[in-house]
Amino acid sequence: MDGIDPNYFTCTLGEAARLKSQDGSFEPLCRTVVELIDHQAKINPESPALGFADFRTRPFLSFQELSNWSIRAAQTLSSQLGLCNENESSTTIGLLCTSSVDFVLTWLGLVRLGYSVLLLAPQLEPNAIEHLCKTLQVTQMLVNEAYRHRTDGINSDISILRVPSHQEYTASASIEKPQQNARISDIAYICHTSGTSSGLPKPIPQSQFGVVGAFPSFPGRDKPATFSTTPLYHGGFPDCLRAWTSGAMIWFFPEGHAPITGANLLKAISFARAQSPVPLNYFSSVPHVLQMLAEEDEGVQILQSMDLVGVGGAALPPAVGDKLVDAGVNLLSRMGSAECGFLVSSHRDYGKDKDWQYLRAIDDPQLLVFEPRENGLSELVVKPGWPFKVKTNRDDGSYATSDLFEPHSKKQNAWRYHSRADAQITLANGKKFDPSPIEGSILASTKLLQDVLIFGSGKDYAGALLFPGSEEISESEIIDSVWPCIEQMNAASQSHTRITKAMLVVIPERKGNKPLEKSSKGTILRRQAEERYADAIESAYQARCPSLSRVREIPDEKVSAAVSDCFFQVLGRKIDPYQDLYLQGVDSIACIQIRKLIESRCLPRQSGQLSMNVIYDQGTVTALVEHLRNIRQGTNLSNGDEEDAQLKLMHRLAEKYGDFQKAKQVSCRGRGNVVVLTGATGFLGTHIIHFLRQNGQVKKIICLLRAENSRVAYQRVSESLVNRGMPGLEALDRDQASNCNVVCLPCNLSIDDLGLSDADRQDLRVQAPVIIHSAWAVNFSLRLGSFEDQIAGTRNLINLAAEAGGRFILVSSTAAVSSSAASTIPEKMSQDPSDASPLGYSRSKWVAEQVCDAANDQLTGITSNSQLATIVRVGQLCSNEAGVWNATEAYPLMLSTAKITGCLPDIPNEVLNWLPVEAAARAVLEVAFSHCVSVSEKKPETRTSTPVYHVLNPHNTPTWNQLLVWISYEDPESGFAIVSPREWVTRLEKALGERKIDHPSQALLGMWKHTFGQNIDSEGCSDEAAKTTSKFTPETLDVFDKTALSYLDGNNPEQKNMGSRLLLGHWKDFETKDGEGNTILHHYSVNADTEKNDLAEVYSREYPVAIGVLTDSAIEYLIQRETTL
């Protein structure tokens, strides 16, 4: 193309065919994926092959490791599936998994066993998954935990199996290749279309030759590596196999560990470059990713550092591409399809040719041609001589792509993409659908319309323009006439094709209006129509739609009906106005849409915008309606009134669930060696179960959790352990030396019988001497009422403990008492609901503690001579030995606000008493098993009171301000100011409002306003007062009595103060928090000259970890691993 030689990154299949015909050295020696991997392992064993910038797996796999691990994967999978039997009706296995090392190894293992693999995108609805499986006769699916819910409701004839973790492939496992390998005629994998309006995607098989043999094999070693942002199930495999065929390496963004944001991409690429033994000079992406990078100077700089930046999958906005090219980025457009592979690119002389949009096709009419169409456009047609096609749509074996192009005015054989001939709509996320059937169905459903135009290209969701046939028909009549049809289609279609009532735009019929322009075949000329009605289309996506302005005049008595209608339009179902919205399944995405509708329909323009969390803040439709009426009337809303109502609700809930008169009174059956645990999939719960397994006295652990059945419950617990760096339950089952049995039961804690069968409940009555209740919904956006199910679950578990003559341990939080006015918060019950921080989560914990106290008052002495319920208030936890930490804690959220406010608060009295989760888990267990120690031995003066323990790091150093000083010194480019707490809260509130973003810190804004200044808006409150009275977050105060913790864990080596190196490691994690509270992690290389005795310090600062800091034991492990490697 233009005399520029291709490379493995730019070479189309047409160019590959030409190169092979001219020089046989470009012909790959392999014809299957297995042959390719094993061949590269033989000739390039140490060359890097695959990396995921996730900081959890190994930095990368060599071709030898990839071959060996895939063999081990085959061995593991063969125990579940066996070898593929050619005589069986089905040889295809479904794979639904995050784009990860596990994905690649599972796929390769299945290929080694002779199976073809259906790659299922996680966005598919269950009916679409079932349709694909039925079409391909798939009877077994491998699914990882992240996407297990996507299989709910599919045909029970399809067996759901767990995707094995690569951590299960032990280094000592023998490497014996399966006796059967896939043949060249076998299908390597099967991808699928996005689906049409019917919600039924079509499978597209990819042959072994198509994914390996059609590619060229460029000679030489140490080729530049590629970094791809495309998930493997969405087209990442072609990039992957294109690189491997030429012995090159590819890196992937760590899907599932962090969202793709500009900041996260920069960190991931930096990590990959630091780890990669070969230069990382190629970048493969999709338009919306490049748009994110183009918005930041650092993003443009990283693209400038690449030799080539490839973009494909959809059209990149010209302004974005022009900006990058003008900045010196070597931007390359690449276009292909699952049906025909890599077709054309804009590879050229980048120094002289800036026409990045114009694709250069191979000049061979036996391979590709551009056939003339209307309006000076041409359609790309793939001819019979093209080396790879899985589909033809013409009698001569050609494939007409329906892609229309316009030629360059001066350059020969240069074409710019224009549109689709079949007018498929491509949404912003790349999902496509054909609008024609939707338009036809709507038109056929009513006689009131003369035309319908579905729109949505480049948008997040679709809408419809409705053209009435008469001026006399009202807007409401038209919408009412078509809505039943749209509802029916929405119910049967995939989510990306659904249309809400709010996205129905009626175009009034007026004299002189021209009808929609149509082709000679009667089809709408979509581009012309979209240009003509661009204003109407754009208005549909605005929060305040002009066409609805008249609805603002609705009287107050009709606000309730209007609000209910907004919910109905978004959800498609009625909502109980008196019940909690969260408990009725109103998710955060629905809240955004509902909020925008309410602003448009129920508020005058001068009222401003509603707060982002208004739906959850109000909790019910009735409360929301009252809130809106106050705004409409200009009433001076009193936060004090709302606060008093919440405090009264705390008392009411405590009384409601603290009545144990109906509990069965039984005598103690004696204590056995069984523990019942809730929250086994949570951060703390997984560590509790891990240490219980190591306790030789515990013979059985019964985990209660929400799940479809016992098998799913077991898988969820096992995968939660593995994901946090601990052995899964399967490892325990294989350990013959272990005497501990783990049973996982599906349950519903909010109902009286816990949702258990009579037999399971009876077993628990007999076997449950200790119940540890660690499960709780951690959602800072919810109000107290949304936690009622959690409180009910506490009462029901206490009833079970009473019936079993056992002991109940509530894992509470210091948040339940963190707003106490006491100088030192004692380890005893709180009697004042205002002691809890002003979050629904914190208040629900306070209520749960009151329920425990009521149980002790009413039941102790009936079931045993000791207190029935014990409370463990846990403070701020930090990472485990594997470096895993919850991403949505208060501290990470506070530090992440530096990105949007440019500042952090000055809190001089704040102590960073973070505690490793392992230490907290051990402390909880020591409390649980301390029943042999009388209460009087602990605190004689509180013999009859409910036992309360504070699980916190006892050290009082360092402080928050020390951390800020260290960050400023270590990271001078961080660029944040240190301001008063009140100033920080003011800036944060302003940033959240102006940016109109759903940053997770929004959920804690109310608590921070309450904490930092005591009436922050009052002129009488000085910043200095705010500092001295500040109590920041629930988990971080050094005002808690910790005598019990000292008694229980006084010699625990993990209770150490946080040093500067460890805290700076936390900052490196927290500064990259995005709007969803996720993290992309950092890597800092260890100097090769570092002495071994300095490795601990170096690793604590510089070793790549997942989320959090390395404990001493983790550092010791890494030192040993470094020595071994």
UniProtKB/TrEMBL annotation:
Residues 677-924 form the Thioester reductase (TE) domain. The keyword Nucleotidyltransferase does not apply. Keywords: NADP, Phosphopantetheine, Phosphoprotein. Residues 38-357 form the AMP-dependent synthetase/ligase domain. SUPFAM superfamilies: Acetyl-CoA synthetase-like, ACP-like, NAD(P)-binding Rossmann-fold domains. This is Carrier domain-containing protein.
